[in-house]
């Protein structure tokens, strides 16, 4: 498939990532009236400027968790300084970084992770080999630097696969089965040890590192929380309802203060054949046609119409917690955090130890959620504290956001909102639904309390020092002009091709607050277009479209990775820095651009080391095995020929950008 559909995106991405949901009827058929009706107000650029003008003077807020992603602090080093790049064309097969910086691959799809890993050879797909190699389509990324600054753990999701450019077409049933098993093995998650000789030198991965690990769509998981063990999660292969196999569709995520990774199971529906009329079927986009990936041909559990497997889709769509420090640990799925198309989860810890996770359901007109854990965070590195902290996300209250365009006098804001409980103190707050039903059919529960349908919440990240929460609403081309789909205060633009970023301030700056105020940080688009807005910044600014992954640097600036190119706004996808405070607030500056067809994932900002990391996802995805569009990252220098046997197709890759030495 080639061509662009459903807004800005490649039809290939749409098909593989989410089974082209945008082309299908809206799965949210709740009858919640629009905000335009509730608030009776649409935001104009003038109103935005007036409403957001005073938020620059953010007060420092009492959080327990300092800068999470900070690398080794070194005295006398300067923060990451750069001259912004210009927007890059969508037909450019190049990684573009600022003058004075260079990029190097750390890990590419197929790189051998273990001493016994076979050599990468995509011409002969092999599932066992792929289980021992770096997976495909890296998305969420973190680099956990260890004491001394010379070792780190790279932790990375592998969201989905682009079969047409990975492997040659098959001609026998045996070959086909092996390709399908290799695709199962290319999904999931990787933990890989890194080393560097000095804090200023680039990282290299350690083949055979003690904690290297591949988790695939076949790895055993444990289900935790109130829905685990209930009838809704039992299958013929798992009569306990507590053990499932594999994770897939892992999009974004977050790293907890206790050193685990949270990973969001997002577009799981495209992997199953399932009865759309079963409970939750239509609401989660299930169909009974052959699945996008065809895994049902090699594993009966992917066809939920097979006797005994009806609940198999109920075992996907969770927040997964992985302990990267213990390669023997069993990864877990936390039912207490609800079942949706989870983009990811990011944790904030208050000084009193209260733990809250913010989560988005990334589909048009779906909702924004918050989980408040029952247990409090315990500081310190003792084994007892660690055991305690590993149980934090198994029990708590689950809320969904209901926004209002009602402004408050005492606060610079464009509106307010409330967190509406779905599960509270172990009880269901939804009449007619048990706790397990709320946690397995969470969208249905959120419909019942008239949560606010959003323009596709991707990353939702609390700021590490101010506590404000940033919500990347990537786009919604079906946001209309009237009726239920009309623009509203927090989703202020019809035919929202370019997306926006909402800034939430919890009341009393308590992570567990029941109410909040909100503003718009960015309404993305062309700087010269009056329909766009950059937090009050009116100077020269980079065009930006489709905000997706978010990160912060050690100075508290927001970094926004985009997923929507090519578009009329920003051509190749990129990474942008956005100051949040002071006179530079809203000054969007582009740091890098990724190669043809690729999306910018990660990112990780270790500014005190002068380093930025991105996971370059689906480069060259509109190509085919015989006609590749990208050769990233192993470009052959001009004038040189590839070595015989070298593979010249694209490889999704984790890239490090550092200052030139
Ligand atoms: Fe996988 Fe929501 O992007
Ligand atoms: Ca994403
Ligand atoms: Ca996206």
Descriptive report:
With 661 residues, the chain is mainly β. Helix content is 10%, strand content 27%. It is built from nine helices and 32 strands. The strands form six sheets. Strands 13, 14, 16, 17, 18, 19, 21, 22, 23, 24 and 25 form an eleven-stranded antiparallel β-sheet that branches. The longest helix has 14 residues. The radius of gyration is 23 Å and the shape is globular. MU-OXO-diiron binds next to loops.
Determine the mean pLDDT: 89
Distance between the termini: 43 Å
Poorly predicted residue ranges = 1-7, 31-73
- The beta-strand count equals 32
- Fraction of residues in β-strands: 25-35%
Sheet with most strands: 11 strands, antiparallel
Question: Structural class of the secondary structure composition?
Answer: mainly beta
Number of helices: 9
Q: Rg to the nearest angstrom?
A: 23 Å
Ligand kinds? MU-OXO-diiron, calcium ion
Summed up, what is this model?
The chain has 661 residues and is mainly beta. Helices cover 10% and strands 27% of the residues. The relative contact order is 0.16.
List the helices and strands and how they pair.
Blueprint lengths: L10 H8 L16 H5 L5 H8 L48 E8 L18 H5 L6 E8 L5 E8 L4 H4 L6 H14 L1 E8 L8 E2 L7 E3 L4 E5 L18 E3 L4 E6 L5 E5 L53 E4 L9 E3 L11 E4 L5 E6 L3 E3 L1 E6 L9 H7 L6 E9 L10 E10 L2 E2 L6 H6 L1 H7 L5 E2 L1 E6 L6 E5 L26 E7 L8 E9 L9 E2 L12 E6 L5 E5 L11 E5 L10 E5 L5 E8 L4 E7 L35 E7 L2
Parallel strand pairs: 7-12
Antiparallel strand pairs: 1-32, 2-3, 3-4, 4-5, 4-6, 7-8, 9-10, 10-11, 11-12, 13-14, 14-16, 15-20, 16-17, 17-18, 18-19, 18-24, 21-22, 22-23, 23-24, 24-25, 26-27, 27-28, 28-29, 30-31, 31-32
The site of one calcium ion (CA) has 7 residues, from β9 and β26.
